[in-house]
């Protein structure tokens, strides 16, 4: 079990071309995520969280360094290989749900499977299975516009999980949800992680959401700043997170 | 400062503005092209077979004008959705509403003026290109047609400036009326399409029934007459709309329910897009289908009439060519044809008249076109009226009897012993005795029927030239048409081809306009699709697959109205089957013209659409 699902070493990301305005968004980032781990990425706005997630998810290209997901080095891949890799190995949950409004909930969840070429007869049982895991069986034939934000995010989660990816990447999944729905989504993610051993990497700036993780990496100005593990209750972990975040603010205020 | 902001943001949204500019330019170009012909009264009147053509052009102008107004309406709503968010942002930053309104006004107007200039140049190019193409195809001189026609330029400029002014005002007013929140939220509006299963089913059924009745009326037009035309109109128009409102969405829905199909690759997305877009575009698709049917119908009918000219020109001649006093060249030319009937007749000609030998005529009685009853086309018949008297004349000269009707036709029409050939000499038919007395050299005339008139046009031209030369020696003045079948054919063709030229021009203008409306409407909703394609890319859909989905979706959206319009035309041609012998012989010509125009639009649309929606690869 303890084989890394994600291995990141000496990762650098520079925005902008050589002779333009350059911005060093990630500087020498190194970390691993073990299979079945639930890891949170935190940091102030502009720290490079989304950049890190985009680079890991192959949506954006790193400037240097290596990223291995499930043993595959993705930094050397071509466009089509990357697309295939995403569709097979990764699942995404975004802040703004990113559901396709012209497809029903069922079709939205089924899409990653059809894209992988799973035969139609195997799709339905898979979709229904993941839908029941996330408690959205009742709305399966509805269109996204007719369901609530919390339900939408569950659908997005179902879509991210249906093809059993090596890792689920979530960027501020609770950002557009009220606290009740946010809590319920986080509990679902924990459930998936614990009972189905789904590896999850969660980007968030919400300490409460982050407190559901087992481990949290803090980044600031594109660099890993600190790492904390949860070995106590969620409440005390929450407090620990708040303390670290308070540390962030202090040096900045001195500038 | 605001102006600077606007210019910089316009630069950023260049590709969206490119779509707008492109759409407007095309609309202006087509409008102008149409006006070059519509306003050229002298050309229309001198080339039209029927006076109603002028009227048709006026109606065409009005319809095109209306389409244009809709077009501009789409265009401005497109520009509005592009700019709303930004305008709202300026407002939150504290820019005054009046300033924003003003800005919006100038922006719309500015784009209008640019497209007006480019559009008129493009329109001149189109007018030249299309006119040349058809004139060449129809072998039609088209004198008096001018691609650069000042009054058309003026009309186009005024029409569009007024339209731009109005729409800029409306646009600015609408932006000015909304508050900031409305504008900010504008983009978040979701497109919900409610469909009701039973209603859809009834609509689909209605579409089939109405179209069925309409098609029946068109095929049975001979029986139903005018009632048939009315019945077809009132059933096919609503039927067409029902096809797009219910039948096609129903079909797509059924397709989507086929899980095997829907759950293969990206099909569910493509079909989902298609279904939603069809539900949003029902009116546009229906209208496009109807106007495609009209435009294509005009072209098809025109081309069928063109190929009917031969039939018309043989209406008065049973024989294909008559050769007075054949030259060596004429005789050689005759050898190149497959002759089915040939007779030679003797006659004498002097300053007092033309004298045929009766015996020759009676022994080899020619065929003529004879009228059996009024209001019916003449039928071919061999002359068999007896000629007992010694002297006959064409017009009852003194001391002669007048020729019986069919003989009269034979001499004046088939043998072309007419004013056009010999001037106003009296024409006699004499028995051998009387004929002997005439003091003149004996001449001969050959009357020929061939297997297929249209096969020997160049031979007929040679013979016709020689005959014209001969006619000029008798008439002592230039002769334009010596009156034979070939001469008639040419005359018919020159008149008909003018009308047909206009029909084609009109048809093409309509098709281009309709296809561009469809293109524009599709592109103007592309903005809402951007995030869908971005999302698909994120979950790992290959770019090639995204492209394929776009090609397919747009293909089907273009295909449906085209198909419906095409079937309307093919069935509609039945209405002409009693005027035109074979209405379907050359139908491939207008259909290919149509598919070329339409195909170009399709490819342009796909290209622009891809530019808008496809995410940039890193
Ligand atoms: N495409 C881009 N081009 C240039 N700079 C960018 C781009 N995307 C993000 N940045 C910059 O990189 C930094 C990190 O951004 P991001 O990863 O989005 O931060 P966050 O931690 O808030 O998600 C920010 O300062 C941002 O301005
Ligand atoms: Mg972010």
Structure notes:
Chain A: It holds the Pfam family ABC_tran. The complex is a heterodimer of chains A (255) and B (618). Chain A is α/β, with parallel strands linked by helices. Chain A has a single domain (4-253), classed as P-loop containing nucleotide triphosphate hydrolases (Rossmann fold). Chain A contains eight helices and ten strands. In chain A, the strands form two sheets. Chain A has a six-stranded mixed beta sheet with strand order 6-7-8-3-9-10, with helices on both faces. Chain A has a four-stranded antiparallel beta sheet with strand order 2-1-4-5, with helices on one face. In chain A, a hairpin with a 7-residue loop joins strand 1 (4-15) and strand 2. Chain B has 23 helices and nine strands. In chain B, a hairpin with a 2-residue loop joins strand 2 and strand 3 (353-357). In chain B, 44% of the residues are buried. The mean pLDDT of chain B is 82. Chains A and B meet through helix 2, strand 6, helix 3 and helix 4 of A and helix 10, helix 11, helix 21 and helix 22 of B. The structure holds adenosine-5'-diphosphate (ADP) and magnesium ion (MG).
CATH class descriptor name of chain A: Alpha Beta
* Main pleated sheet of chain A: 6 strands, mixed
CATH superfamily placement of chain A: P-loop containing nucleotide triphosphate hydrolases
Low-confidence stretches of chain B: none
Question: In which order are the strands of the major sheet of chain B placed?
Answer: 1-9-2-3-8-6-7
What's the multimeric state?
heterodimer
Net shape of chain A: globular
* Rg over C-alpha atoms of chain B, rounded to the nearest angstrom: 33 Å
